[in-house]
């Protein structure tokens, strides 16, 4: 994106008007001098007008003003995606020829993957203990006290780094197999090939207008931003009076190879790997080509990826890690013995999803009426309610709903696109038919037409 115009070079001697005394008797020379003076003045006026367009200003930049302000807010904290891509491709090229993990039996592959994810829990536990020591005000020598734990943590991380390529290769093969069985492959292969790398995912600055909920701008930032730096960047971005900003972590990135953060939940990981592969798959089709056209195409793309990722990820768990499949939900509790006297068990509990949905609907209503300040105060009030019930949301604003609302399938999602896509999936004979249909859809109008045809 062009954030600044190229500077215009000029010579002050050329544009400076110079008065010259003209002798009355030199009539020809006088006229020539007057003509030159006029030409210089006209040139000066034109050059100043050109500079007025060339020098960035709020009035000239228009929509680019927000992008420029966001980039200035991020500063040198931007994520170097190119450098990450180079090392990721280098590793995947090596893996393509070495096939790490292929020498193991199916049982050994299973055990390696399960052990890897259990060790992630250990890494998190050790990191938490070290952070607690450094945060303890009574601790006078935190480095010394945490040294044994740090040594153990370094050893565990080194072990994880050695096993990571094999775990990635095994999971890539397993997800590919399930995709192929779902019909999303040809001759036993899927395109593009499933490739991902575990890495600490970058944070992301999300910009939304204040008067409506919309992803207007996103900028990737280096991972592991401190809370104080997140809030600094948000405050800098929000110096533009008409925008709302949020720095939020992301679970995956549809680069290629895709980026997946290492968490201990294997079900979440298989879902995310398939989700990000779906984005890569759609890049070769109309829905992917039009990803950034507007909010609707972005929501269509993200929701389709969520549906495919959920189905494929769960199928991988059921086939290769059946012990991780959660047990069926227990039957509902019996009604209270006496009408009008509900038991303690029947007391309604806090419903996070319903609360977020109601919050989003009320915010949409307030913004539609132009009551922006009231909407922001209400979101902060609801954030405190959520916090009191254990949901640690640092900042709830238009940018939060814009980012999370791009996936029209979760709490806070009010966009009807989600319900329509789920209805289309239910009417489709299988996942392949659903994907083939939605891959060519680039508008809600086309989605409605597909539903009208019955899938």
Features:
17 helices; three-stranded mixed beta sheet; 6 strands; three-stranded antiparallel beta sheet; mainly alpha; 455 residues; disordered N terminus
In short:
This protein has helices at about 10-15, 25-55, 60, 65-75, 80-100, 105-135, 140-180, 225-235, 265-280, 285-290, 295-320, 350-370, 370-390, 400-405, 415-425, 430-440, 445-450; strands spanning about 195-200, 205-210, 215-220, 245-250, 250-255, 260. Strand 2 (about 205-210) and strand 3 form a beta hairpin.
Describe the fold and architecture.
- There is one protein chain.
- The chain has 455 residues and is mostly helical.
- The protein is built from 17 helices and six strands.
- The strands form two sheets. It has a three-stranded mixed β-sheet with strand order 1-6-5. A three-stranded antiparallel β-sheet has the order 3-2-4.
- Strand 5 and strand 6 form a beta hairpin.
What helical percentage do the residues reach?
A: 55-70%
Instruction: Tell the overall outline.
Output: globular
Give me the secondary-structure category: mainly alpha
Quick check: average pLDDT? 80
The total count of strands amounts to 6
Largest sheet: 3 strands, mixed
The arrangement of helices and strands along the chain is: HHHHHHHEEEHEEEHHHHHHHHH
Question: In order across it, which strands form the biggest sheet?
Answer: 1-6-5
Q: N-to-C terminal Cα separation, in Å?
A: 38 Å
Low-confidence regions: 1-29, 47-63, 339-347
Oligomerization: single chain
Percent of sequence in beta strands: 5-15%
User: What would you report as the Rg, rounded to the nearest angstrom?
Assistant: 29 Å
Total helix count?
17
